[in-house]
Automatic annotation (TrEMBL):
It comes from Phoenix dactylifera (Date palm). This is peptidyl-tRNA hydrolase. The lineage of its organism: Eukaryota, Viridiplantae, Streptophyta, Embryophyta, Tracheophyta. It holds the Pfam family PTH2. One of its GO terms (cellular component) is cytosol. Signal peptide: none annotated. Transmembrane segments: none annotated. Its EC number is 3.1.1.29. It comes from the Eukaryota. CDD domains: PTH2. InterPro entries: Pep_tRNA_hydro_II_dom_sf (IPR023476), PTH2 (IPR002833). GO terms for molecular function: peptidyl-tRNA hydrolase activity.
Amino acid sequence: MFPFRRNPSQPSKNREEPWLAASLRPENFLPGLVIGFLLGLFIDLTASNRSSSKGKSSFPSGKHQSVVSCGNGEELKMVLIVRQDLRMGAGKIASQCAHAATGMYAEMSQRPSNLSSFSHRSLLRQWEQCGQPKIVLSCKNQQEMNKMKETADRCGLPTFVVSDAGRTQVQAGSRTVLAIGPGRKADIDSVTGKLRLL
């Protein structure tokens, strides 16, 4: 593995093999590959044990977090309601939904809470631990979206409306997507339960 050095007292009859060529010979390469693989596997296993033990210690005993159920056994989710009358393409809808989800997240992580049992940050943390479920629904038009927003606001659910910049498919200022939540699944379903999946 190291470069060969000539002993000055011995004359060199054959040309010495470069260190890389000597390292890549099967009798040197295969053991090195096996040792590297085992070392990598060992490092990976110790890192995953450390991260899983940290995860276990951060939750109170007796309460296990899962993708479906969070916190005190309640499911959390966010819904993204897309206006169908704008006839946006699939890429535009995906972009607008991303704006809605990230806009809601940024707003909730910065604004003070007005929820009774959760602060916005702890609600976000629980939603993150649940796998951040997001459901995309559709509404007919701006009026239906406004009704959904008003109802969600009355229920104390966080809302965020995306107003498009108007660079591509829709006019500037068009309200394209309404995000509701994250919040308790039952609360969100009471507002959006009659809407259809996109």
